[in-house]
Amino acid sequence: MRVLSAAFILSLTGQAALALPKHTRQEATCADLSTTSPNWQITNAASSDWPGGASGRVELFARHLPTSILADCDVEYRLDTDGKIVDYDPSAAVACTNFGAGSLVTNVTLDMDTLLLKLTSSWTCGDDEEEGGGKTYTATGQTTLVRDTSPGACLVEPSQLGNSTTCPIADVVVEGTLAEA
Fold this sequence. Notes:
Blueprint: H1 2-19, H2 30-36, E1 40-50, E2 55-64, E3 69-79, E4 85-86, E5 94-95, E6 97-99, E7 105-111, E8 116-124, H3 126-130, E9 136-144, E10 155-157, E11 164-169, E12 172-174, E13 176-178
Antiparallel strand pairs: 1-2, 1-11, 1-12, 2-3, 3-4, 3-6, 5-7, 7-8, 8-9, 9-13, 10-11
């Protein structure tokens, strides 16, 4: 009798488990994020100056939130022997390189005096293409980068042509504004 009761209870338990409602969190689609928050997450950014090599650069990684594509952006500049930036055009757009496949095209400009970063991206969402839409989105955003030059924050590396100094730049979310179609 006990075996029969146990089998009956297990049978009912299984039916109850099957009847429980499934609450699944629906992820926002690329199209949803494109219209509500076409933002970028800036991470692992740093500036590196090498006066002895007459060059420097700001490197940053920009994750485009609607597509989740990570782009590497390198803004290079020339330095004189005193470490001052020379012949730099703050309005010159630099193309970023994507990690992985996707339709994302990102360009940045960077004012080296104020560290004002401007991003422009255009993309087509994969979920739109599957639905036959294939709509292209474009967004712009800007932020002022915060470089940490406090004592001990920067890495100084000696070389045959003088020291190279690399300073971290704080992570930040850049709010994008969707361009009107």
